[in-house]
Amino acid sequence: MMTLNKRLDLIEPKILDKSFRTGRGTANEINFWIFDYDPADEMAVRAHVSYLEQRINNQYDDVRIVQFDLYKLILNVLREKNYLDKVMQMEQAKTSHAIINPIKKTLRLTLDGDLIIGKITESIVPERDIIFLTGVGKAWPIIRSHTVLNNLHSKIDRNPLVMFFPGDYTNELRLFGEITDDNYYRAFKLIER
């Protein structure tokens, strides 16, 4: 079993490899990848993702890392819709659980015009950008990782995508190593543990 630091060090050469960036495999697989890690390592992974984004974006002209923190996307959309204060008031008056469905409806999750998917797809340059999805644990249970991947599957086919996942990915996604999400077989493990 590799240490976290060794696995993190292997990300940069992997994603800069031309074969990684050019797309699909021999069976026409989608270019989606998952870097799973122990949730206790969240802060180290966040720091390394920021480091990679800054380093690659400052050093290369032909590739760019575009990071999307799912939790921050939720907050930005709610702010744009002038709904964030209402959500906070609703949460204080009721419970955290009571705001989940109203937020999902506001974000139009899994519907045509899904605002989270729209924010991601409108911000990328095909064939240049590598998409990093972060904030998976912070966005749960409003956004589920398999839902985002499934919805992006039909929208992104010319950019590699890496989801940084606090949990386990074998033949299924297990958030925090405990919460089983729907299976997602189309993604590959970026770096084995």
UniProtKB/TrEMBL annotation:
Pfam families: BrxB (PF08747). This is DUF1788 domain-containing protein. It comes from Pelotomaculum propionicicum.
